Amino acid sequence: MRPEVGALVAAAVIFVFFLAVAPAFRSADAFVTVLYQSSTIGIVAVGVGLLMIGGEFDLSAGVIVTSAGLVNSMFCWYFGINLWVGAILSLLFCLAVGFLNGYLVMRTGIPSFLITLGTFFVLQGANLGVTKLVTGSVSSTDVSRIDGYDSLGVIFASSFEIGSVVIWGTVVWWILFVAVATWILRRTRGGNWIYAVGGAADSARAVGVHVVRTKIGLFLAVSFLGWFVGMHNLYRFNTLQAGGGVGNEFLYIIAAVVGGTLLTGGFGNALGVAIGAFIFGMTSLGIVYAGWDPNWFRAFLGVMLLLAVLVNLYVRRLATREARA
Amino acid sequence: MIEMTGVGKSYGPIRALRDIDLRVNAGEVTCVLGDNGAGKSTLIKIMSGLHPHSSGVLKVDGRETVFTSPRQALDLGIATVYQDLAVVPLMEVWRNFFLGSELTGGRYPLAGLRIRDMRRIADEELRKMGITVADIDQPIGTLSGGQRQCVAIARAVYFGARVLILDEPTAALGVRQSGVVLRYVAAARDQGIGVVFITHNPHHAYLVGDHFVVLKLGAMVLDARRGTVTLERLTAEMAGGAELAELAEQLRRPA
User: Fold this and answer.
1) CATH of the domain at B209
2) Using 50, 70 and 90 to split pLDDT, how confident is the model at A171?
3) Cys bridge to A262: A171, A206, A267, B210, which one at CB 3.0-4.6 A?
């Protein structure tokens, strides 16, 4: 039983549904917009999915995206230096947060849910507090006239045209990250270890798997991808709202679970998480295209999550049912 | 190959194990018997590297050692098969077989798994031990308890274990499946592997053992070679020995 089957069926049903009810949904333009919307959630969701397969959560994944952009933007604005320096500094900052998350979880044995809830609040508060101290308002200053803006923009926030439609680079990055994650999970030792530490950490440790290293690596991967999307947001919009990103951590988790990842770890794959993010993109825009009140989106997402959890539970039963010998 | 002299282990103020002398020789089965809480699991944890010992001397191949991780013990050829944490249920049989010792090709970081080789070898090795699984790609959680135990043993043997520590391999199994596992224990011994067989079943121990150690409340109460001890004696020691005789005296009922 492959984990993404349920999500694939759901995605097809939702796609056909919006094609039927929302005329504005039926264009190539709308489709690439959906892809873009999916990619902004999907990139971090890849990391969160891997982390959940490895048996852990990261609730700070939503706000760290905003923190990444803010560190880059305000550091360079305040000291008047090249944006590249700030981008690298911001990457180091995010990796440090990811390492701290992983280290504390492994060192204390406290569930990652609690540890990262802590970092979530710290970052959320610091985002607003530091931004107000530095700029005197709750948004960061415009970075478009600082050195390095153009070259960073090419990497993180460029777009290109195919025929009449404009495709954002993040879509390509998203596909690339999903491909790399798939390769890691299925075809490398690291991937084997991710499944093992999520499925049965004690068994894994007993046969020589480096449980601590594997899990900390996963937290680092989530922070890296969070940083990546943070860079995209900064170089696409030039300024950031310091309160942004809150709540997105749940979207990542929902994308992973809808994509067939088990909440308890040890099962799932990157393609499923990508389909989960695509379902998110389709519904968030489909509801708008259909002319409905966008508030319904959250209710719909909740229903999807519940259905996915039930399907996952059933799959897990199938997979672990002991044969009579 | 492993030699323990006066080994003990304390968890804070609690002494879980004291003054253990034990030798594990190649091609022999050393049975460690004991009731729940007798210190069997502590002994395994010391030998397999999960916990370091806190007193005494542990020698591997004549060299004094304190293990700080299971990896270290594994590298010296000491493999442990645990009763309940032997496998990762949701992973495929072949992935479980190679977990922690995966075959990779190419150069890091682009080293991919040699999936085809691993599947073939896992299938061959299991067949050699007489285990046939319908599909090497099925999650190992769908195998029976005895089969899972055997996969774990076959894995340890394949990866060149010189000492094989088996933690209650027959505890959760029926008579027939226990027989299957005991035959592998004998097969492993005949290949020259030093086996440490932990059990609370003296009948199973007596079937394959060369050397018997009985633990009680963290200390050794019996240390005997095969031939110097009978099954009755073992059973009696296990059941409580002198204590049991006393209890029988107290509870004696008129005939």
Assistant:
1) 3.40.50.300
2) very high
3) A267
Helix (H, G, I), strand (E, B) or coil at A231: helix
Helix or strand holding residue A162 (H, E): strand A159-162
- ipTM given for this complex: 0.82
Q: Closest residue of B to A320, CA-based?
A: B141
Cα(B43)–Cα(A45) distance, rounded to whole angstroms? 44
Residues 6+ positions from B79 with CB-CB distance below 8 Å: B156, B159, B161, B163, B164, B165
Tell me whether B89 touches chain A (CB under 8 Å): yes
Q: What total number of domains does chain B contain?
A: 1
Q: What percent of chain A has pLDDT over 90?
A: 71
Number of domains forming the structure of chain A: 1
Considering A14-28, A56-70, A288-302, B173-187, the range whose residues carry the highest mean pLDDT is: A56-70
Q: Between β-strands B29-34 and B194-199, what pairing exists: parallel, antiparallel or unpaired?
A: parallel
Contact call for A319 and B141, based on CB within 8 A = yes
First-to-last alpha carbon distance for chain A, in angstroms, is: 22
Q: Is B225 on the interface with A (CB under 8 A)?
A: no
In a domain, A238, yes or no: yes
A149: Cβ contacts below 8 Å, ≥ 6 apart: A83, A143, A235
Is position B127 within any domain?
A: no
CB distance A192–B142 less than 8 Å? Answer: no
Q: Could you tell me if residue A322 is inside a domain? A: no
pTM of the entire structure?
0.84
pLDDT computed for residue B169 by the predictor: 82
C-alpha to C-alpha distance for A270 and A50, rounded to whole angstroms:
7
Range of the domain at A176: 5-317
How far is Cα B13 from Cα A199, in angstroms, rounded to an integer? 34
Mean pLDDT of chain A: 91
User: CA-to-CA distance for B237 and B33, rounded, in angstroms?
Assistant: 9
Residue in chain B nearest A318 by alpha carbon: B142
pLDDT digits (tens, 9 = 90+) for B70-94: 888 888 888 888 876 568 888 999 9
**Contact criterion met (CB below 8 Å) for B52 and B67:** yes
Phi, psi of A146 (to 5 degrees): -95, 150
CA distance B72 to A130: 47
Any domain includes B109: no
What pLDDT is recorded for position A96? 97
Q: A18 with A25: CB under 8 angstroms? A: yes
Instruction: Show the domain range for B240.
Output: 2-87+160-250
CATH code: domain of residue A179: 1.10.3470
Angle between helices A28-53 and A189-199 (to 10 degrees): 70
Asked whether residue B239 is domain-assigned, the answer is: yes
